[in-house]
């Protein structure tokens, strides 16, 4: 393979269409008789609906129907979640919407209004009067935390680990820290609110929706609406951001499809921004303890990391909060435990680096605090505890370059200029602080199928139901296929975002690019072989006798002899060649389990942060950032850097501003808007210097490791550690708002 | 109302927002709805060259204005506006949902700056005093959220087109 495109900073292929406003998202499709739907949300956290008064709503001109549990056609109940059928992981909550009078959380959708216009639907929804019989509800995470029960482990995720006797080692340690941390609930707040346009034609269904999991969603809809999967087509060519929030099927999707079926009209249901908070889960809050013991030289003797998270009583993602503590430090004694409480709130779900993003905040803050206790440079402390093998299970790392990322990062950041004394660096009224933390995220692959077609005119078509949530999904695969087949990038077309295409991986777990790449590589290999076979069968081909030609210049060549694919196909009288590749679920799971026993694979990095803290108000500004990452081979420097920066930006939000506020009495999200939930804006984000080592992980396709999530890990701690350096104050409760830094 | 140089007549209720009129009635879906509350900037369009949040504007109030959306910013409707190209070159986007708002906002922001309009960071209200530093651009663009965090690329694209050197 000649590498012309892989590794180059190619412009994203869908950049042009996105910048001229022609990319069509789920809410951008017009149908002549399109109706609009709006949700009515419950206003109590738990209880029963005793009456629904919808006369006023029905009287609004343009209203077509008001669907409630009293009149809505029934959906089949959601199936039980099981690893034997991964599509059951697509279930947002176990509630069978509009089939029950029970209310399980404040904000649960309990009615749908369908009308001729958005305005009529929303106005009518505001007129639906619901009375309830309230039941006692448990909604306060902090109050419930002492009642947490151990989280169960499953085949893929372990919720506990023990090595040696960590508590005893901690008690005996020469130096130790024992800290409690809390992190609040977060919301993905993808800029595109969840939107579904559903169109029934008899028992065939077309769904336009920005989703991170077309295949699972389709399977789930087929089951819920009792139609064969092949009758459903999901179209999702552009997704206006996801971050985990569009990985599952939430009420909006189901109720749009239900409303379309009930009214016989194409229906668009676009959640309001508040509706996103009420109908889609976010990241769990957490309470964590990290205790570290070490000898005077900074060698760890004890590492304890325990966590409490929550789920909803009606479902929720189990977060691997202590996961990074399994892999980062060599300690003879390790104790990890994850516990849960169940609340009467909407099910939580995965959000960018679930577990690691908030887990590394606690772990890496504690490591920094230990460095203060020891009077040691925090990078040096980390290097002294860098393990040779995965500390608990003793597996080998496929790729471990934390020493290198720290060395490169320290150089680029100018770490040596840091005066280690807290509060010692100033710039006028600003206290300047510098902090570091480790980024870490396990790498994963999922099954993917692709077809690659070579046309007689030299064009190449790659087909796979990938999700374009902003990662440049098609661009990376086009680069790979162009190199593998030796054709110009311009002649490769990648078709994605349509469930009629070969099934792709879900866009989650930072797995999409590598998963698809592995199938694209295999399909291209098959295609080259078929092309060569064709050529060798024909007497006139210069490739007769060729055994191992190279793909280049639009064809196959060996020892200066060869011909283009177009010539090969023309001589054979074929108008195209096609190859399919991909592994089935069973083979895939078997391989994953085998690999997991053998190797620890991950993306990692070093986050360097400089903050400025206003000495009078406690306002924190992030003024500089350097992130150096080991993500194996870089396929596209431009889109990879963008994704890593995006993770860091979201991490700055996590560190300083983001917090979903749940009313402790009513369980209602009280800041359900972008005015009150503060995501980073332009002015909050400095120049972010991202650098990748670009050293392939030999066990991954092309050596690449997914980058979607590692960028956010370690960010919270890097900021907190910089604040500690600037002010001498250790903030253990996110977000680091100025009230936590005011002099007491 | 003139939209992208074309006179459009609409028969709509007085409460229809400019954003919904453009998207649902005129089929111009470039402007996006991220919040419908004036908090995200995804719906930014130009009204007589001035940037506004179309979700906070009633269409009726703009009957005599010239509205320009992302679909209409390329000069003469041909080719692409330099900012559109710069956004691609500098990867000032990921999912693309905020992009049309960012670009429309940036066009008007550059005009505001050229007209001497100060921002909160501008040291003096004398027109000449506003050097378009990186921080000025960040400040002036802060009404346009990008949850994908493409801010560095957006800044680079704007600076490229504004033709300025890095001034931090
Ligand atoms: S949609 Fe108008 S500002 Fe968000
Ligand atoms: S590119 Fe996704 S919100 Fe800006």
Automatic annotation (TrEMBL), chain A:
It comes from Nonomuraea phyllanthi. One of its GO terms (molecular function) is iron ion binding. SUPFAM superfamilies: CO dehydrogenase molybdoprotein N-domain-like, Molybdenum cofactor-binding domain. SMART domains: Ald_Xan_dh_C. Keywords: Molybdenum, Oxidoreductase. This is Molybdopterin-dependent oxidoreductase. Gene3D superfamilies: Aldehyde oxidase/xanthine dehydrogenase, a/b hammerhead (3.90.1170.50), Aldehyde oxidase/xanthine dehydrogenase, molybdopterin binding domain (3.30.365.10). Residues 20-136 form the Aldehyde oxidase/xanthine dehydrogenase a/b hammerhead domain. It comes from the Bacteria. PANTHER family: ALDEHYDE OXIDASE 1-RELATED, XANTHINE DEHYDROGENASE. The keyword Disulfide bond does not apply. InterPro entries: Ald_Oxase/Xan_DH_a/b (IPR000674), Ald_Oxase/Xan_DH_a/b_sf (IPR036856), Ald_Oxase/xanthine_DH-like (IPR016208), AldOxase/xan_DH_MoCoBD1 (IPR008274), AldOxase/xan_DH_MoCoBD2 (IPR046867), AldOxase/xan_DH_Mopterin-bd_sf (IPR037165).
């Amino acid at each position: 393979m000649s590498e012309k495109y892989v590794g180059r900073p190619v412009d994203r292929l869908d950049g042009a269409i996105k910048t001229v406003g022609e990319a069509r998202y789920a809410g951008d499709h017009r149908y002549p008789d399109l109706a609009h739907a709006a949700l009515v949300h419950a206003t109590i956290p738990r209880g029963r609906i005793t009456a629904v008064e919808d006369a006023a709503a029905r009287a609004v001109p343009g209203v077509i129907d008001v669907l409630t549990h009293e009149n809505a056609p029934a959906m089949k109940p959601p199936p039980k979640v099981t690893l034997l059928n991964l599509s059951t992981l697509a279930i947002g909550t176990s509630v069978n919407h509009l089939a029950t009078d029970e209310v399980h959380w404040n904000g649960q959708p309990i009615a749908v209004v369908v009308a001729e216009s958005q305005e009529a639907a929303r106005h009518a929804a505001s007129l639906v009067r619901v009375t309830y019989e309230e039941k006692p509800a448990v909604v306060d995470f902090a109050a419930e935390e002492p009642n947490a029960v151990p989280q169960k482990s499953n085949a893929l995720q372990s919720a506990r680990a023990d090595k040696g006797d960590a508590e005893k080692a901690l008690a005996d340690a020469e130096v130790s820290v024992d800290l409690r941390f809390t992190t609040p609930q977060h919301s993905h707040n993808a800029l595109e609110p969840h939107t579904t346009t559903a169109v029934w034609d008899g028992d065939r269904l077309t769904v336009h929706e920005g989703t991170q999991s077309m295949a699972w969603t389709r399977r789930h809809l087929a089951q819920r609406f009792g139609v064969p999967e092949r009758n459903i087509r999901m179209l999702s060519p552009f997704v206006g951001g996801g971050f985990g929030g569009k990985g599952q099927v939430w009420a909006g999707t189901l109720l749009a499809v239900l409303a379309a079926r009930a009214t016989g009209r194409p229906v668009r249901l676009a959640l309001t921004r508040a509706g996103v908070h009420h109908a889609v889960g976010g990241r769990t809050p957490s309470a964590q303890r990290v205790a570290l013991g070490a000898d005077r030289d900074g060698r760890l003797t004890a590492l304890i990391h325990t966590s409490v998270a929550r789920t909803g009583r009606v479902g929720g993602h189990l977060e691997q909060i202590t996961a990074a503590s399994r892999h980062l430090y060599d300690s003879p004694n390790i104790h990890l435990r994850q516990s849960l409480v169940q609340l009467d709130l909407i099910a939580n779900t995965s959000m960018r680096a679930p577990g690691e993003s908030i887990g590394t905040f606690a772990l890496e803050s504690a490591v920094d605090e230990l460095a203060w206790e020891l009077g040691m440079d925090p990078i040096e402390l980390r290097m002294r505890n860098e393990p040779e093998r995965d500390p608990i299970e003793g597996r080998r790392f496929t790729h471990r370059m934390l020493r290198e990322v720290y060395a490169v990062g320290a150089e680029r950041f100018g770490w040596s200029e840091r005066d280690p004394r807290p509060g010692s660096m100033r710039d006028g009224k600003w206290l300047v602080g510098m902090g570091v933390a480790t980024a870490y995220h396990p790498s994963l692959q999922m099954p993917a199928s692709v077809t690659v077609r070579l046309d007689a005119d030299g064009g190449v078509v790659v087909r796979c139901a990938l999700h374009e949530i902003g990662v440049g999904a098609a661009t990376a695969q086009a680069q790979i296929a162009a190199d593998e087949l030796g054709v110009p990038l311009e002649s490769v077309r990648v078709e994605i975002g349509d469930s009629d295409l070969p099934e792709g991986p879900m866009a989650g777990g930072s797995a999409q690019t590598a998963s698809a790449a592995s199938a694209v590589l295999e399909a291209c290999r098959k295609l080259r072989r078929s092309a060569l076979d064709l050529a060798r069968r024909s007497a006139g081909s210069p490739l007769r006798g060729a055994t191992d030609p190279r793909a280049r210049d639009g064809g196959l060549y060996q020892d200066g002899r060869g011909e283009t694919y177009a010539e090969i196909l023309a001589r054979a009288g074929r108008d195209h060649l096609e190859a399919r590749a991909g592994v089935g679920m069973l083979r895939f799971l078997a391989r994953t389990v085998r690999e997991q026993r053998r190797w620890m694979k991950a993306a990692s990095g070093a986050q360097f942060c400089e903050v400025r803290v206003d000495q009078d108000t406690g306002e924190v500004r992030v003024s500089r950032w350097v992130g150096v990452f080991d993500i194996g081979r870089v396929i596209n420097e431009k889109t990879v850097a963008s994704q890593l920066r995006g993770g860091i930006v979201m991490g700055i939000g996590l560190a300083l501003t983001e917090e979903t506020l749940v009313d402790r009495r009513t369980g209602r999200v009280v800041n359900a808007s972008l005015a009150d939930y503060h995501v980073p804006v332009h002015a909050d984000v400095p120049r972010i210097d991202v650098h990748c080592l670009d050293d392939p992980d030999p066990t991954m396709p092309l050596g690449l490791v997914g980058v979607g999530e590692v960028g956010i890990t370690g960010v919270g701690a890097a900021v907190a550690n910089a604040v500690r350096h600037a002010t001498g104050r250790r903030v253990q409760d996110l977000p680091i708002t100025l009230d936590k830094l005011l002099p007491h | 109302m003139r939209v992208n140089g074309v006179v459009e007549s609409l028969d709509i209720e007085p409460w229809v927002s400019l954003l919904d009129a453009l998207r649902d009635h005129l089929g111009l879906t470039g402007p996006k709805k991220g919040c419908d509350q004036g908090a995200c900037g995804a719906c930014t369009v130009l009204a007589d060259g001035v940037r506004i949040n179309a979700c906070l504007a009633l269409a009726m109030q703009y009957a005599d204005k010239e509205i320009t959306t992302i679909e209409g910013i390329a000069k003469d409707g041909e080719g692409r506006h330099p900012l559109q190209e710069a956004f691609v070159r500098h990867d000032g986007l990921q999912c693309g949902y905020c992009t049309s708002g960012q670009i429309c906002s940036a066009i008007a922001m550059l005009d505001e700056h050229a007209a001497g309009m100060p921002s909160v960071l501008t040291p003096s209200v004398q027109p000449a005093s506003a050097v378009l530093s990186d921080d000025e651009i960040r400040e002036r663009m802060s009404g346009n959220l990008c949850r994908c965090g493409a801010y560095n690329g957006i800044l680079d694209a704007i600076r490229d087109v504004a033709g300025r050197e890095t001034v931090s």
